[in-house]
Amino acid sequence: MLLSAGSNAHGQLSNTSLEDSHFFSPCSFSGCSPGILPAGWELLHLASGANHTLALLKSHQNANTELWGCGDGKSGQLGPSYQAGGESSMFRPLDLSLERHGLSGYLPRLVAASWETTYVVLSRGDVPDVVIAMGANDFGDLGIGAKRAGKLPAKDIHIVQFDHLTQNGVSVDSSSLFIETLAAGQHHVVARLKTTAGYLTVGWGTSRHGQLGDVEKPFISSPAVISPGRSDDGIVSAALGHQHTVFLYASGTVSGIGSNRKHQLDSIDAAAGARSVACTWNGTYITIDDEDDAWGLLSAGDNAKGQLGRDDDGHRHVARVEFPFTPATHRLLQIACGSEHVLTSFFVLASSTTEVWGWGWNEHGNMGIGTTQDVRLPVKIWPPQEAQAQSGRVGIWAGAGTSWIVVQ
């Protein structure tokens, strides 16, 4: 089942209401009992924008995937099928009308969301991947070219093109394109491409603060090659904040570009043994394994709402999040960053169960603990004290004042 808490003015929690939820409550899928996913399907990923949410589901029967959505779709961020109703307070399948664009047979493989825009990587067998964008285009968010930057009619999907790019002086061969990763911040996007010539990191959207590299433009409205400040060989993934971008390398090192006004990039390149990176709007989070193979979680950036998960008297440099337990009792599984709050999941060694802990901005009750006060140090938010410990698979996601927990 899927549970959600937090901001819900447009039904983006999919709990059939338009009221904020201060406790985790069941999400609804069209045609299903509250909280229960469609029969025979599993949840692969959730992506959240300002007021819309997308769920990528996979069929157990044939491994096909489907994209479902809820919340605000008035800017086109939920595809053309949402234009009539505008918004929905429960998940329902999205009809992207792919056949009209010559994309019959393609299935969604990756999904990401910025403020009012959605990005979907479509795959079909051994043919090249296709990236589509839909929704608002305020800062070139759609990635479809400078002539079309700004407001557009919210009526269709748009195909993002990459054949104008060059790699080592040679045009990128879009006939063999594979999208390895795709990540979105509030108004910028970074993708890792695999081509016949190797790997390429590209981005588009707002770039005023250097979050897309050394670009002397307020925004880039079509994909451009990004220089991450060092060789991009070995980049594993990227995490995006509001005005900064962080890269994780296969070597276990980290680099960052963009704004450091909130100290979100301070000394992050000194981290070693990194295995994942994540960002809030104004923070950076790095999971590490040290020499003794014990995990740690480092945080840097804005701490006005307790986002760093440590009582540091306002210091924002890189340091460890302060958990009330050690790697000897809990094993870190996953981290999920929202706009200005963080969720983490742990495997409890003594009981072989899973717990979810969270901290940070809580104005909309997105911690799911019944209050709207900010949480400055990690607290256990799931399962509730009265609930039975969970031994099955648990997944977590976080959005703009929203939190999500799936139990399978």
From TrEMBL:
Keywords: Repeat. It comes from the Eukaryota. The keyword Repeat applies. Coiled coil: none annotated. RCC repeats lie at residues 1-59, 199-251, 354-408. InterPro entries: RCC1/BLIP-II, Reg_chr_condens, Ub_ligase/GEF_domain. The keyword Repressor does not apply. This is Secretion-regulating guanine nucleotide exchange factor. It comes from Mycena venus.
